[in-house]
What we know:
The complex is a heterotrimer of chains A (92), B (111) and C (116). Chain A is α/β, with parallel strands linked by helices and 92 residues long. Chain A has helices spanning 16-23, 44-48, 56-61, 75-84, and strands spanning 3-7, 29-32, 51-55, 70-73, 87-91. Chain A has a five-stranded parallel beta sheet. The longest helix of chain A is centred in the last third of the chain and has 10 residues, at 75-84. Chain B is mainly α and 111 residues long. The chains are: A alpha/beta (92), B mainly alpha (111), C alpha/beta (116).
Amino acid sequence: MSTLHVVSHSPFTDSRLDSCLRICGVNDAILLCGDGAYGLHNAALQTKGVKVFVLAEDMQARNLPLPDWADSVDYPGFVQLSLDYDKVNSWL
Amino acid sequence: MNTLTVGTRTLELDKDGYLVDLNAWSEEVASALAAAEPLALTADHWEILTLLRQFYSEFQLSPATRPLIKYTALKLGPEKGNSLHLNKLFNGTPAKLAAKLAGLPRPTNCL
Amino acid sequence: MSKSLLVISRQAPWSGPGAREALDIVLAGGAFDLPIGLLFLDDGVFQLAPHQDAKAVQQKDLGANLQALGLFGIDEVFACHHSLAERGLTTPASAQPLDSAAISQLIDRYDQVITL
């Protein structure tokens, strides 16, 4: 079973991304959107070894560089991801 | 505004006919609420109303049907804690009607 | 067979509607006999702290509500061990503590997850 975790809060003000990384399974992925895109600056993300996606427009709006350990997706890509994974867990 | 007159008192009811102030409840109020249904309260009814007041003071919420049945079975035994008995007493909608007569808020987890 | 649902409650009890909303989802599902699990994570574990006084902040008693979970048919109640320890809370009687790996497996077991 695999879960796509959607995180939309900045990891620098909020514990969502930390907790998500802690309980993430090996087959899971994290999609960063909104202020969650600032997670690209979070070193812990790449060391965990979980797949990381970022919503392209939120990354562009914030002028964040795309690291080689992450992939960017547009909205159709977001929809495709939500189908590729068994379930979606939005960290509201 | 909905109101219920009991003796000399006028009590406020919400739009569904539930008592607004939990503490305004008395057996007299329950009888007046029942008369409006109309339903004649027997000892079997009173037993459930008392139990519901107890449930509310313990958990601070009105039970939906299933927890009401479970709680009744727990406290009064399975011959009373079953849907047949409770449906018969409260016209087929025990959670809603019994909560109303016991002066509790409308159960929120009940359609 | 209905789809199973895991509700992850991670808001502190009196900080906003989050804790109440998570519980309402769980109770509503339980009332309809849906297979539901509840996990307290992050500040959500503060909901389990003993001797809180909801009346002091004019709120409904969430702690009392939580005691009704069993009657609503909710037997799968868990708390994140890491979150409890981080906050100096002891293991509550009403929730089974799980470490991070076990939480990962828990999420796998359910068809759907809601995090509030």
